[in-house]
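WARN retry 2 of 3 for item q-0093 after timeout on previous attempt; input resubmitted unchanged.
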Amino acid sequence: MFDWKTLLGGAFLSRFFSALLIVILGVLAIRVVLTVLRKTLERSKLEKAAHSLILSLVRAGMYLVVFLSAASALGIDVTGIVALASVLTLALSLSLQNMASNVVGGFTILYNHSFHSGDFVEVAGQAGTVQEINMTYTVLTTADNKVISIPNSSVVASQIVNYSASETRRVEIAVSAGYDAPVQKVLDALVQAGTRENVLEDPAPQAVVTAYGDSAISYSLRLWVKTPDYWDVYFAVTQRVKEIFDEQGITMTYPHLIVHMEK
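OK item q-0093 returned
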């Protein structure tokens, strides 16, 4: 343990200057390491949300090492300090289990690259654009501008659908038409509706018959677009299908019942 009698002797001065040297060199080393680490993180593919946490953890760990080294140079028995710190760390981790699981979940998300900031995803029953991935929550903004914060532990445990992962997406529009409308005429009308700006030519728009119902034939129009154009094309083509059907006299059916009465 610390011997106060050394304050009066030269041994303490020697220890003091040794500890001071350790602190000065340690602080300089920390600055160099953090600068190099910061530049390395900026060049990496890690989310920016992880940068600050990694830097903070490294900074705290290095300062702890410098503190213990300086204390040891002063003649202080650091064994008790380390033991006390271990106990406090364990107690803190037990009391903050949920936060710890969210932090681990945040690292898992950033490591797996399941999605990135700006992606439109569906996760944990919520859909929206990823605004931020911090160490405890993933923040989404929905289409109607609601901000939703989902615990990272819930994100990791749920199914993730990333609509922005690929450069292209397929738009599929289901419609129905009566049996009195020629099948080929309906297919041609659907392809005509799907041939427009922002629709990719390869693969070309395709219309197919999907089912024969009790009172209608079901069709599907399938076309490919660039991911950012998905909703604009979906809404525009959906409206255009009805307009072309009206122009060509094709009737979209709806559930109805025909009753024949005998006299």
